[in-house]
Amino acid sequence: MSRAKRQSKILEIINNMSIETQDDLVRELSNNGFKVTQATISRDIKDLGLIKAATEGGVSRYVTVKSVDYIISTKLINVFKEAVVSFTTANNLVVVKTLSGCSTNVGMVVEQLNIPELVGCVSGYDTILMVTQTPENAIILKNKLETIVG
After folding, report:
1. Interval 127-136: pLDDT, tens
2. CA-to-CA distance for 70 and 72, rounded, in angstroms?
3. Which residues have a Cβ under 8 Å from the Cβ of 119 and sit 6 or more positions away?
4. CATH for 74-149, options being 3.40.220.10, 3.30.1360.40, 3.30.450.20, 1.10.10.10
5. Helix (H) or strand (E) holding 61
6. Rounded CA separation 135/8 (Å)
7. Rounded Cα–Cα distance for residues 21 and 30 (Å)
8. Residues 6 or more apart from 83 whose CB is under 8 A from it?
9. Topology (CATH) of 3-68
C-alpha cells in the first residue's frame, strides 16, 4: 500500500487510540493490513511531525502537533530537544538547564506550548525558571516537558 495511505491510517489510529510506542503502532497497522517495519514507522512519525504528549494519567502517547493546539514547528521542537540539559523541581518551580545561550529559545518554545500548569517563565543565559501555582503542578509540568525531550 502507498505511503500516503499508510500515513493517513497512522493519523486515524493515533486519533482514535492511545499509542505509546512505535511497536504499538506497527502492531496496530498490521491489524489493519499494513505490513511495516519499525524503521518505516520512525520515518513516518518524523514526516507527520508526531510528538509524544503526556495524558492526564501521566502516560505518554503519540499525537499530532495540531491535536494538542501546539503552534510550534518541528524545527523548534528539535531545538528544544537538543538544547535542554536537565529539569529540576523545587516547590512550585521548575528549573530548566540548557546549553549555553539557548535558554531564550527553549523558553519561547515552552510558552508556545500553552501548558495550563505554567504561570510564567524567565530565561537567563543557560537557565529557565518556570513558575506554577502548586508543587504538584510543577511535577506535572516537569513530566510534560520530559516527555517532549523523549
Report:
1. 999 999 999 9
2. 6
3. 131, 132, 133
4. 3.30.1360.40
5. strand 60-63
6. 40
7. 14
8. 98, 99, 102, 105, 106
9. Arc Repressor Mutant, subunit A (1.10.10)
**pTM higher than 0.85:** no
Count other Cβ atoms within 10 Å, centred on residue 137. 19
Distance CA 35, CA 142 (A): 37
Is the CB of residue 118 less than 8 Å from the CB of residue 70?
no
Closest by Cα among 16, 113, 5 to 61: 16
Q: How far apart are CA 43 and CA 38, in angstroms?
A: 9
Instruction: Give the type of residue at 53.
Output: A
Smallest CA-to-CA distance from 49 within 117, 148, 115 is with 148
| CB proximity list for 103: less than 8 A, separation 6 or greater | 96, 123, 124, 125, 126, 127, 128
H-run or E-run covering 93: strand 93-98
Mean pLDDT of 31-42: 93
**Chain-centre distance for alpha carbon 26:** 20
The whole-angstrom separation of Cα 13 and Cα 143 is 24
Residues 82-111: tens digit of each pLDDT: 999 999 999 999 999 999 999 988 998 888
